[in-house]
Amino acid sequence: MPLAQDPPYQIRTASSSDVLVLATFLHLFDESVVWLTSRGLSSQWGSKPLKNDPAHIKKVEKLIEQCTVLLATPVKSAFSSSQPGILGICLFSSSHRCHPEVIPPASETEYYIQAILTSRSSPSAKGLGSAFVAEVERIAREAGIGLIRLDCYAGGEKGEEGLVRVYERMGFQKSGGLLDYYESGWMGQVMSRRVDVRRA
């Protein structure tokens, strides 16, 4: 049986004031927009890069200020000049921040994953989404918090529920029905996952 290899990245907590955080979020967001659009899925985040949109940047800055920030960087043995210095970013907080008027509050203390963005250009980022969720779960367990929630896009121009299925494979379950965030047909799904705090 082959030995499990260490991942080619390391995850660390970053200060929300770190100048790399905002730049990384905007870069990876726009990279994801290009990737989704190339696959006919522009209905998720649109088709235009947003890093030059002042209103969008202001919203992201506010979100970052309210969240704990995790950054994933390549380990030295896996680093090459052809891949980005930061492979992914994850934002989570003690409650939902983006659409509190839409997302029903939890009945207990929770961690809410506000965003997970990973590089689409580096093979080293493979599996990073799951690793971010595992790290949030570890932090939650140590804090005695038994619930993690997030929301994701549940529509698709091809009638797909791709992200919902991805998070179900990570142990999340649908929590409530579909939500129309903007009354414009953009459908989201709240997902929840229990944390066994007895393992802390």
Structural features, described:
- With 200 residues, the chain is α+β, with helices and mostly antiparallel strands.
- The chain contains 4 helices and 7 strands.
- Strands 1-2-3-4-5-7-6 form a 7-stranded mixed sheet, sandwiched between helices.
- The longest helix has 20 residues, at 19-38.
Topology of helices and strands:
Blueprint: E1 9-14, H1 19-38, H2 54-65, E2 68-74, E3 88-93, E4 111-118, H3 128-143, E5 147-153, H4 162-169, E6 173-180, E7 187-194
Helix pairs in contact: 1-2
Average predicted confidence as pLDDT: 84
Task: Quickly count the helices.
Answer: 4
User: What class, by secondary structure content?
Assistant: alpha+beta
Element order: H for helix, E for strand: EHHEEEHEHEE
Q: How big a fraction of the residues is strand?
A: 25-35%
Percent of residues in helices: 25-40%
| Uncertain residue ranges | 77-83
The shape is globular
Number of strands: 7
Distance between the termini: 30 Å
Q: Main β-sheet: number of strands, strand sense, barrel status? A: 7 strands, mixed
Radius of gyration over all CA atoms, rounded: 17 Å
Strand order of the largest sheet: 1-2-3-4-5-7-6
List keywords for this structure.
200 residues; alpha+beta; seven-stranded mixed β-sheet; 4 helices; globular
